[in-house]
Amino acid sequence: MDPITSSIRYLRRALTRAPYKYDYFGDHLAVRKKYIPFLHDDAFQQSWEQVCKESEPHWIGGTPDIRWRVHVCLWAAECCLRIDGDFAEFGVNTGLLSTMIVRNTKFDESGKKFFLFDTYEGIPVDMASENEMAGVHKMNKNMYAGNPANTNIIEFARKQFAPHPNVELVQGLLPGSIDEVSFDSLSYISIDLNITSAEIGVIEAIWDRITPGGIIVLDDYGLSGHEEQNAAWNAFAAKADRMIMSLPTGQGILMR
Question: Model's pTM, two decimal places?
């Protein structure tokens, strides 16, 4: 049997059979016969289902199943709770990742601040490169122009994080809006801006204030259509004498 026919038969069997307790199919990722911790964590699952319910009106087609990406961010956040430095997320939207972090870790007891940077009005088109323009227009249309529920997304975010007094929403263009808040150091950083110039501008602005051992999660690092970001991050990492770990979720992990 040739490899293509074999692969097609394998996919047909995987898609038609009943889900197995060690399977995960979501977020353009399929994993079989592996022990996946979050699938066996009742607290995680209940929290995720609640976040999905709250966020669903703000996503066309429902809240995306990004549980594996959430699992990665929870791991990174747990590591960074043990070292000096506040938390920051650059590119928030409805706050799926950051909501799961504050609800499923001891962040509220840590004394750290969590800064959530976003325009809360969509991705700034004038900052996109020519190669990024089509993707940015599509995301803005799907997330904002095409969804009336997102006309005032910052109010939804404020409601989500109201129970967490150490979370601060920062609205504005990046990297300039970083100067609107005060912090000595950062330990956990998530970056998902979809625009190369903004992402590199952010890391250049904060790199010297990231605690050694701090973790930067790059949400789009390995996703198709984001090759320009990938190349720019690889160049930055090489200049900083670092290596980025690429994950099958599409995320990249960079350590200070």
Answer: 0.90
